[in-house]
Design brief:
The protein is mainly alpha-helical and 452 residues long. Helix content is 72%, strand content 0%. Helix 10 packs antiparallel against helix 21, helix 20 packs across helix 22 and helix 21 packs antiparallel against helix 22. The longest helix has 37 residues. It is globular, with a radius of gyration of 23 Å. The chain starts with a helix and ends with a helix.
């Protein structure tokens, strides 16, 4: 990369950081108090306020007993652990905002570098506009949250994978890309370790296919460097796949049995089918695979608790397939095609005008615009593939679609699904936008070339 391009990247990062810092400050000081009366000092009620509270308590404990009492996964929440350290070091709430603005700027640059594997740098930077100006990023990232870390971690992981597999990349840089990938895995582990569990099998398959292709093309040195990188990356995914509160939550249901004195509801009906006496494992899969599938279905049960606790009409109507309560691993596996459409494509076009014919909703004001851009982008991607035949672009697409499919299986609440899948969703949107721009530029050049 030339010095000029490096200067452009640094300039863009600084601009995005300043924009994000300013916008997040406005969100905390103006928008959140106005839109959410239950917010306290700019902290949204629920998880953000809870993270803030336990972070303050831990910071106070570290002041009294020493920094050795620091816990990264504070009560199972990595973002709260980092916040407690920032509070201990003397940073206030806006140290969190500054950290999130930094991560936002980093994510935008890394996204551009990912896209740069197939497109010119300037086009790649332009294609990151959806993530730069994303209202979700600016609004939610003004809080103590997991999503800003998950986004930057996942994008660093993708950048590393793309660099290692890309045959055009210098062999000497494979180590740098492997290290980038491992750093991304570590950041993911801080907030959502289970994502590394999801990434493990698809990454292993991807490396295996790559090594076979390199072997057939007589690229022995490339194959060796990829194999070394694969070992370290896969080991990182294995060892950094646990540590969150969700691990304990799901494990508490292993061997769980339904009791008759529980009140009937969609939640208890779901739990009943997950009862170890009722659930049917599939002989097609090993026991650990059956346990993973069952855990995903139990997560559906847990999400249904929102239906018992919320009276918000938009929240209730944001649930999908609540009647799907699988009784076996095979039944859950057969749900995968449907889960992929939910994970990748929801909300459906028939919900895009919800804010006009139902009621006001911040979620349904922003997300339909992003969904429309995604639909257009996916069509543009297909056209670009037909024109260019550069099928390596399907690597980030396949990885992202796989993660979103798992989320589609385990999370029937579209509002939460949007936050969880956000990193993968943005990858597809930005790649699709890059394809759209490139297709348009190619068509314009062709038209100008045809003129006498």
């Amino acid at each position: 990369m030339s010095d000029r391009n490096i200067h452009i990247i640094i300039l863009i990062f600084c601009a995005v950081f300043i924009y994000a810092l300013s916008a997040m400050t406005i969100a905390r000081e103006v928008l959140i108090p106005h839109m959410m009366p239950t917010a306290t000092d700019g902290h949204i009620s629920g998880d953000p306020y809870y993270y803030h509270t336990i972070a303050l308590e831990k910071a106070q404990q570290m002041h009294e007993e020493g920094i050795q009492t620091f816990e990264l996964h504070l009560k199972g929440q990595g973002s709260a652990g980092i916040a407690s350290l920032l509070y201990f070091l003397g940073g206030g709430v806006y140290s969190i905002v500054a950290m999130n603005a930094f991560l936002h700027g980093l994510s935008c640059i890394v996204m551009a570098l990912i896209i740069n594997n197939w497109f010119p740098l300037r086009l790649s930077l332009l294609s990151t506009l959806p993530i730069i100006i994303s209202p979700h990023s600016i609004f939610w990232f003004s809080q103590i949250n997991k999503d800003s870390y998950a986004l930057s971690g996942y994008l660093l992981f993708l950048l590393g994978i793309a660099g290692i597999i890309n045959q055009k990349k210098c062999k000497n840089k494979k180590f740098i890309y492997a290290l980038t990938c491992i750093i991304g895995i570590f950041i993911i582990w801080i907030v959502r370790p289970y994502v590394n569990q999801i990434l493990l099998p698809i990454t292993a398959v991807l490396f295996l296919i790559t090594i076979i292709i390199f072997q057939k093309n007589n690229l022995s040195l490339q194959k060796f460097s990829v194999a070394i990188g694969a070992v370290f990356i896969l080991l990182s995914l294995v060892f950094l796949g646990r540590g969150a509160l969700s691990d304990q939550t799901l494990e508490s249901f292993h061997g769980w049995q339904y009791t008759l004195n529980q009140p009937e509801s969609i939640v208890t009906e779901c739990y009943k089918e997950a009862d170890s006496r009722n659930w049917i494992n599939s002989e097609l899969f090993p026991i650990f695979a059956n346990n993973k599938i069952k855990s995903m279905m139990i997560n559906r049960c847990i999400s249904f608790l929102i239906l018992n606790e919320s009276n918000n009409k938009t929240t209730i109507e944001s649930f999908i397939d609540i009647n799907f309560i699988p009784k076996s691993s095979l039944e859950a596996i057969l749900y995968i095609p449907r889960a992929m459409t939910i994970g990748v494509l929801s909300p459906w076009p028939d919900r895009w005008l919800y804010v006009f014919y139902k009621e006001r909703s911040f979620f349904y004001t922003i997300v339909p615009l992003e969904a429309a851009l995604l639909y257009i982008g996916l069509v543009s991607l297909c056209i670009w593939l037909y024109r260019r035949r550069e099928y390596s672009i399907l690597i980030p697409v396949a990885l992202s679609a796989t993660v979103m499919t798992v989320y589609g299986m385990s999370m029937p609440f579209i509002g939460a699904l949007y936050r969880y899948r956000y990193p993968c969703w943005m990858v597809l949107i930005c790649l699709g936008l890059a394809c759209l721009i490139d297709n348009h530029q190619s068509k314009s050049k062709r038209i100008l070339g045809d003129k006498p």
